[in-house]
Amino acid sequence: MSGSRRRGRHGSGGHSASERWLITYADLITLLLVFFVIMYSLSQVDKAKYEELRKSLQTSIRYVPIEGAGKTTHVIGDGGENDTVVPMPFMRPDHLALERLEKAVASLAREEGLDQEITTRMEQRGLVVSISNTAFFAEGQAELRLQIIPVMDRVAGVLKADPHYVRIEGHTDNMPIRTPRYPSNWELSAVRATTLVRFLVERHSFPPSRLSAAGYGEYYPRVRNTTEANRALNRRVDIVVLRSALTEQEPKGAPASKHQEAPASHGQ
To answer: Please, are residues 244 and 94 in contact by the beta-carbon 8 Å criterion?
Structure first.
């Protein structure tokens, strides 16, 4: 009897020990379930709150280039009298500067009631400020309308305060033009671009070395020229504020010197 009871207890104890791994396995499965629930919750962060936080940080910090050790680094401070400057090499001050410029131009356009005529968009090459030809130029002409000059004065002030290189690009729709002054859309688009360049240089003392002009005619439409509304969108002048990486690829002239003279030309 006694031996039988002992065998029973031994047998029962052996069976219990063989199932202990189930407890460990169940704990592991529970932990994995909790882990994936947490990961899913983190992936569902309120995007609106995230965007609000991002914008708040951008407006509350500033980026300052520091020269040292033969290279340029960037630091971030709070903009107060007692800045705590912390190196932030992973930030992109160039992109943030263009975003601030975009907000300034968009705000200006809204204040002037021209948010349909002056639009902005960010592209890989930089910030593009599109100016409707309908509001700024008479049909078939390249002179700025007098009533729009005060608006352009404000736009020029915003652009001049920014150090980026600026390219002015003229565009037309696909309607042909043939006048003594503008034999084709090439001439019209190019003259409209150079008109704006001259406006910036002559009226606002914009550094000419930061400017260039290009005429694209009808060949780079924003939308298809299928309706009058679409053609109106394509008749435009684009002010392209180039990113710093592209600015470095622009041609560089030799430094001017009052002692240098151009070599004499013997040909025609």
So the answer is: yes
Record the tokens describing residue 244, joined without a space: 């710093």
Q: Could you report the per-residue pLDDT of 18-60, keeping only the tens digit for each?
A: 677 778 878 888 888 888 888 777 666 666 666 666 666 555 5
In tens, the pLDDT along 91-104 reads 467 888 999 999 99
Q: Could you tell me the two tokens for 62?
A: 């500033």
Range(s) of the domain holding residue 60: 47-90
Q: Which of 56, 90, 124 is the last residue of a domain?
A: 90
Could you tell me if residue 208 is inside a domain? yes
What is the spatial distance between Cα 185 and Cα 139, in angstroms, rounded to a whole number? 12
Distances (CA, A) of 65 to 25, 71, 198, 243, 247: 56, 10, 31, 16, 17
Distance CA 27, CA 184 (A): 78
Q: Mind giving me the DSSP string for 223-242?
A: S-TTSHHHHHHHSEEEEEEE
Residues 235 and 204 in one domain: yes
